Amino acid sequence: MYAFLSDLHRRPEPFSTYSTDILWTDAHLAQEMLAHHLSQDTPLASRTLNVIEMTVEWIEKTVGISGRRLCDLGCGPGLYATRFAERGAYVKGIDFSANSIAYAEAHAKLPQSSRGTVTYRVANYLTDPLPGEQDVVTLIYCDYCPLSPAQRALLLAKIRQMLAPAGRFVLDVVSDAGFANVKNNSRFGRRYMNGFWSAEDYFAFHHTFRYDADRLALDRFTIVEQDRTWEVFNWLQYFTPETLAAELRAAGFKVLETAPGFDKLQDTFVVVATPKEGERLQSC
Question: Is the pLDDT of residue 280 over 70?
Fold first, then answer.
């Protein structure tokens, strides 16, 4: 027991374990995440509808989406994708949560006045083929931030290949300003987070680790059930406009615009980028 508890308090190496997919593919957690995604009372999995509306409106005004092909990566239950289609975009929503995609498809009916369309596909944008010749690609709700540097480089290469000439890539990230609020901490509880982690009885350890040199945070959840012990590692990379622009430049993009995020509960900013001319990548 001492060795087990000692290991829980030991800070892992940055991005040494990746387990984010468990949140969206485990049957119980997928239902919990969908419920939180749709809830207007918590920002755990998504933003409130008024913030989503403001975000979609800003993207429409900034890059133009009516009549354009748009791929929403990590689309979840379609809260953004449906609104893009209502504004005239031809939308493809991609997410690796079958549960979220099932909800999105069940609620994909658009108003008769809508000029756009929306279709959904279950896929992992890090490993599966992605559609090409897209005019706009979106990656919203800071999906970029839990990824390791290698995963981010891979994803950016795939997005470069997805985009049509002069296409636009829109993403938001957590700002370095929010890193000041990260504190090393440890918590413990029975049925921690009100039964979020399992339908069965369980105990949970929650450790937060701060990596100052990397501007990185980790929330490590260790779930102890009667018959198994398992973990979820939630990494979060914090960015400045300069550090994000450097990553985008290294991947063959140039930044066109940077703006503050609309979510007042979290320090974020939004970036619009486009592929540099003459640097279209080969198929990934």
Answer: no
